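Project outcomes to date are best conveyed with an example. Our students and postdoctoral researchers have been running inverse folding experiments weekly, and each run begins with a structure described purely in tokens. The record below, which covers 407 residues, was selected by the lab manager from last quarter's runs and is presented without edits.
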């Protein structure tokens, strides 16, 4: 058996203006901290959860309710984003011995019950839970309708129904201190997976600032899975019973054609571009494979971004693809020498049969006939030309870096 990995986190220290230093006291064994209090912290302050680190597309989550009832027990916290993404939270204090083995199975069991619902069933359960807290919301969408980023109601309903049907959610086990043996349980999913969710263990390290009850909360993502596959997850040995999650979910829609979707964020991106053109996911995957050979790495957030660590000690965004099909290329001008970035933009536009919009020095970009950002639909069949243009740009950057070092 391998030794557990040492924690890389120290404890916070406050240094005052006079130079005195005070180490903060961990609230791990504070008897005043209950699981109800932990749930309440998550409900009132969802920003304490490092959700964007785990699934970048899950932006601005809203706490919709606590203690959402299911057939197998209540879900501690349910959060939903304006885009209809679901976040299930199971809160546990790790001084409770029963939590250490059963908590993962419990979270999956409750989530499987959630996936049996449709939008109307979820709405009823949420409104019931909120009524218990004294809230008088008349619909689930009402909770989101006043937000600036709120989608239309039909779009919101469709997104939630799709996520429920596919069993797609972010499931978080949140504790005041994750035990090593529980952290290792994440390995279970990598070998048994098929449900369609991302699972993560999150530690909320709580520190007392003073006797008034003020807290410093340090969130840490200790372990996470990539998107879990679609066979069955055997819970035997965790909860004492075996329950294939796929039976609880029912019929699941076929997965995205993408084989490179390590997260729900990535999968949703590929679903979006497939709506623009069914050929898009395959062409983008081929582009990713060629970019990897050139040392390019990718980041998923509101878009798929391609980045390269240049020898000039900067990271360049060499282009991106948005879910709505736009392909921005202007960001390369922000850090690269503009004479070289302009040549890159001009060569890329020529390869794609497009034009260059020359707004100002650091805002050159590949544009369509209308002068606006080129679209994916306009360059499908030509994405394969991008790596060769990029490689020439990289070689020029390397030459510039070598001259800078030798000069």
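After processing, the design step wrote out the following sequence:
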């Amino acid at each position: 058996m391998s030794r557990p990995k040492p924690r890389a986190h120290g404890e916070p220290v406050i240094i005052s203006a006079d130079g005195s230093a005070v180490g903060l006291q961990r609230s791990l064994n504070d008897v005043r901290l209950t699981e109800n209090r932990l749930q309440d912290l998550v409900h009132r302050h969802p920003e304490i959860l490092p959700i964007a680190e785990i699934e970048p597309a899950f932006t601005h989550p809203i706490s919709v309710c606590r203690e959402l009832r299911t057939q197998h027990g209540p879900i501690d916290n349910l959060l939903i984003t304006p885009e209809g993404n679901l976040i299930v939270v199971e809160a546990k204090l790790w001084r409770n011995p029963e939590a250490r083995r059963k908590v993962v199975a419990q979270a999956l069991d409750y989530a499987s019950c959630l996936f049996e619902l449709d939008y109307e069933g979820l709405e009823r359960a949420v409104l019931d839970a909120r009524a218990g807290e004294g809230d008088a919301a008349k619909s689930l969408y009402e909770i989101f309708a006043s937000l600036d980023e709120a989608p239309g109601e039909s779009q919101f309903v469709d997104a939630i129904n799709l996520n429920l049907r596919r069993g797609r959610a972010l499931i978080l086990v949140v504790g005041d201190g994750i035990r090593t043996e529980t952290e290792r349980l994440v390995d279970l999913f990598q070998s048994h997976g098929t449900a369609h969710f991302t699972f993560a263990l999150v530690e909320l390290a709580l520190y007392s600032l003073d006797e008034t009850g003020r807290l410093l909360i340090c969130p840490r993502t200790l372990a996470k899975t990539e998107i879990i596959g679609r066979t069955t997850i055997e819970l035997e040995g965790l909860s004492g019973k075996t329950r294939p999650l796929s039976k609880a979910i029912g019929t699941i829609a076929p997965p995205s054609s993408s084989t490179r979707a390590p997260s729900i964020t990535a999968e949703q991106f590929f679903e979006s571009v497939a709506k623009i053109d069914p050929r898009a996911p395959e062409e983008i995957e081929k582009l990713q494979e060629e970019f990897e050979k050139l040392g390019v790495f990718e980041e998923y957030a509101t878009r798929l971004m391609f980045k390269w660590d240049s020898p000039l000690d900067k990271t360049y965004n060499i282009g991106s693809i948005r879910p709505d099909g736009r392909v921005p290329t202007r960001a390369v001008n922000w850090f690269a020498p503009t004479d070289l970035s302009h040549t890159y933009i001009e060569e890329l536009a020529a390869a794609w049969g497009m034009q260059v919009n020359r707004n100002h020095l650091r805002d050159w970009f590949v544009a369509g006939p209308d002068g606006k950002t080129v679209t994916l639909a306009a360059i499908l069949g030509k994405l394969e030309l991008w790596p060769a243009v990029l490689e020439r740009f990289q070689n020029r950057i390397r030459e510039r870096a070598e001259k800078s070092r030798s000069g």
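Residues 1-8, 188-194, 228-259 have pLDDT under 50 and may be disordered. The first helix runs from residue 35 to 44. The training component of this project remains on track.
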